């Protein structure tokens, strides 16, 4: 039996769980089901999604920064409608829409960046950026940061700074090293080596736990890369297109990288598209001329639909002045979160910029339970406190969020950039309710366990 589109609408939540478990990823199905994160969402618009029971949720996760324009933005679908009769994939021609999107990107990215290569995801953008850096420099060494996240394909994974995702796939691509994030002195020691092609860095670490570097760090990095003849790659996949209050996060310090990676919200939250953008000098050295122009290619990269979505997305972000809105509303959100931190000891730290915020939770460093279990209780809370709070937000208050991959003790707040203060207030009041009713981690754990038992 083959399902048709109209059949999908008739599937129950249990049907979907069973199919996903049997044919896609059984472990993920079990994990999401356990914490009641496998709801059947059937409608989405703007900042809101609706489940099959008619319940309304506010999306504060925003697909990890991919939904800057919100769910199903009309501007993107309008653009897709205008190109639906054009050839989407036609390799024996220059792509009209890729040419225009390349032009538009060059107008909004940091000064000096010019040539774009279009692909389908952030990880692919990082792969291309790393290849461009090696080809342009003639060197092989790549430096990245501890706690970083650049993707899970082999090159991107080799630059990603968490061993959990690397160890099952060893050996990785050779030539990669890490330094502590935010430490320019440690970076300089590595840059003194002669074979370093590039330093790749997130202006704010997303999956690392929404880590904001010290003021002036990116400026120092730019100076050091110039001093040692090393290319600077800025990974703006999660921070780009207005999320942090400027069009790109590195612009806050006036920094222009040699190569920049983008993806996520470039497709308007509808069509997958990524890109790496280089200076003219880097492009000429890596891919310049007819002999080198096909060294890096992608079948679906630069297709008409994706590029039309990209054109519409950039225009909508500029026309709605979403970077400025993210700055204003983001400051309001961070101020509210910091007030909660002052009030509740369970919150260890609040950090972020614009509409990219993280809440880190305290873990019991000492105590009889930790001692009796050989530290197992402490390890449990480091891995699961974030997911328990996210579970309370989802199941009690209908707010969607999640923990960060490299630091699961942090929940992230990355709502669409169109969100208004009323929804921010609701989120803050919901957190207040959770913390006031669960003053200790043990009670929070007990409530989570009770919900799991009820579900069974």
The class by helix and strand makeup works out as: alpha/beta
User: What gap, in angstroms, lies between the N and C termini?
Assistant: 30 Å
Binned, the helix content reads 40-55%
Radius of gyration: 22 Å
Instruction: List segments where confidence is low: pLDDT < 50 over at least 5 consecutive residues.
Output: 368-377
Strand order across the biggest sheet? 4-10-9-8-7-5-6
Architecture overview:
- About 2% of the residues have low confidence.
- Helix 2 runs antiparallel to helix 3, helix 7 crosses helix 12 and helix 17 crosses helix 18.
- The protein is an alpha/beta fold.
- A hairpin with a 2-residue loop joins strand 1 and strand 2.
- The protein is globular and about 60 Å long.
- The longest helix is centred in the C-terminal third of the chain and has 22 residues.
- It has 19 helices and 15 strands.
- The protein has a seven-stranded mixed sheet with strand order 4-10-9-8-7-5-6, sandwiched between helices. A four-stranded mixed sheet has the order 1-2-3-13.
Give the secondary structure arrangement, pairings included:
Blueprint: H1 5-8, H2 13-23, H3 26-34, E1 41-45, E2 48-51, E3 56-59, H4 62-65, H5 74-82, H6 96-108, E4 113-119, H7 122-137, E5 141-145, H8 154-159, H9 163-166, E6 176-179, H10 184-191, E7 196-201, H11 217-228, E8 231-235, E9 259-262, E10 274-279, H12 280-287, H13 289-292, H14 304-319, H15 322-343, E11 347-353, E12 356-361, H16 368-372, H17 376-397, E13 399-400, E14 402-403, E15 410-413, H18 421-437, H19 441-455
Parallel strand pairs: 3-13, 5-6, 5-7, 7-8, 8-9
Antiparallel strand pairs: 1-2, 2-3, 4-10, 9-10, 11-12, 12-15, 14-15
Helix pairs in contact: 2-3, 5-14, 6-14, 7-12, 10-11, 15-18, 17-18, 17-19
């Amino acid at each position: 039996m083959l399902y048709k589109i109209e059949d999908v609408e008739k599937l129950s939540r249990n049907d979907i769980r069973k199919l996903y478990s049997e044919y896609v990823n059984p472990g993920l199905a079990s994990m999401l089901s356990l914490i009641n994160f496998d709801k059947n969402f059937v409608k989405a618009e703007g900042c809101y999604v609706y489940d099959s029971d008619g319940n309304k949720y506010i999306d504060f996760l925003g697909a990890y920064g991919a939904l800057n324009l919100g769910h199903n933005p009309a501007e993107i679908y309008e653009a897709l409608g205008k190109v639906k009769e054009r050839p989407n994939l036609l390799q024996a021609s220059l792509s009209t829409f890729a040419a225009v999107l390349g032009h538009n990107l060059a107008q909004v990215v940091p000064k000096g960046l010019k040539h774009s290569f279009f692909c389908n995801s952030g990880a692919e953008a990082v792969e291309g950026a790393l290849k461009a850096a090696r080809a342009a420099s003639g060197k092989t060494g790549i430096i990245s940061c501890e706690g970083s996240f650049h993707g899970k394909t082999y090159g991107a994974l080799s630059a990603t700074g968490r061993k959990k995702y690397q160890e099952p796939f060893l050996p990785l691509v050779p030539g990669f090293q890490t330094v502590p994030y935010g430490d320019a002195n440690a970076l300089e020691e590595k840059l003194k080596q002669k074979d370093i092609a590039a330093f790749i860095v997130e202006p704010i670490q997303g999956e690392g736990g929404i880590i904001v570097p010290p003021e002036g760090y990116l400026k120092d990095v730019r100076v050091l890369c110039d001093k040692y003849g090393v290319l600077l790659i800025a990974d703006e996949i999660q921070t780009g297109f207005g999320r942090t209050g400027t069009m790109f996060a590195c612009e806050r310090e006036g920094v222009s990288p040699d190569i920049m990676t983008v993806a996520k919200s470039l497709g308007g939250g509808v069509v997958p598209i990524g890109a790496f953008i280089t200076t003219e000098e880097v492009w000429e050295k890596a891919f310049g001329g007819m002999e080198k122009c096909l060294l890096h290619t992608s079948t679906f990269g630069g297709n008409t639909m994706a590029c039309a979505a990209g054109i519409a997305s950039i225009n909508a972000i500029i026309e709605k002045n979403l970077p400025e809105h993210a700055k204003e509303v983001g400051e309001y959100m961070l101020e509210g979160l910091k007030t909660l931190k002052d009030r509740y000891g369970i919150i260890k730290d609040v950090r972020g910029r614009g509409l990219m915020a993280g809440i880190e939770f305290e873990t019991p460093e000492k105590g009889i339970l930790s001692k009796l279990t050989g530290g197992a209780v402490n390890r449990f809370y480091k891995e699961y406190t974030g997911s328990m709070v996210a579970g309370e937000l989802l199941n009690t208050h209908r707010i969607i969020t999640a923990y960060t991959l490299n630091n699961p003790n942090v929940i992230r707040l990355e709502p669409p950039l169109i969100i208004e203060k009323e929804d921010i207030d609701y989120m803050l009041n919901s957190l207040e309710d959770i913390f006031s009713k669960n003053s200790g981690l043990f009670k929070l754990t007990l409530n989570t366990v009770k919900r799991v038992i009820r579900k069974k």
